[in-house]
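Deviations from the work plan: none for this task. Representative record:
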Amino acid sequence: DIVMTQSPDSLAVSLGERATINCKSSQSVLYSSDNKNYLAWYQQKPGQPPKLLIYWASTRESGVPDRFSGSGSGADFTLTISSLQAEDVAVYYCQQYYSTPFTFGPGTKVDI
Amino acid sequence: QVQLVQSGAEVKKPGASVKVSCKASGYTFTNYAMHWVRQAPGHSLEWMGWINAGNGNTKYSQKFQGRVTITRDTSASTAYMELSSLRSEDTAVYYCARGGDGSGYYHLDYWGQGTLVTVSS
């Protein structure tokens, strides 16, 4: 199974400041035949289901504010919130869908 | 608009089975995969398996192999997840989530609201 790790476990950021979350996979999730990274980012607020933010490592889901961006390739990825807003307080998960079982990171809690 | 509406909370005794439903609307049900993901209290997300809603092919996590069965009813645009031989560690919120095409190797773009399953004697 591909193991996903995230850092930090939690972070507190001032309103308007940048938040950066890292995600590493135990093996590459870059599929050579289509040159896509099979990596997604989700946001989960308390009592709610996860919400898709980013897929293919860097493609923003429709309707997601452009302050959210994803980068990285292979086995190292980053989610950046360029200017943190109050509504961004949540837990963020990375997930690989390169091979089954699909696996999620342990989550990073973002607070103000 | 795409919606996934799940069945209500369940309380089960150890050793019993539970079947959770997920009714889809707002898209062509048979063109997509449906995944099941669970989340134990205070824990991360755990993928259980998926079904190609078109042809009914399934793929399960080895962890749940033999205990989980995912089915669908195309006439009702509904997917089901049945978990048997329940134990206390299965207490969790269970989510259905739409995948991409039937291959299943896609991000999960829409999620159900979740169904709390509590296993307690």
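The mean pLDDT of chain A is 97.
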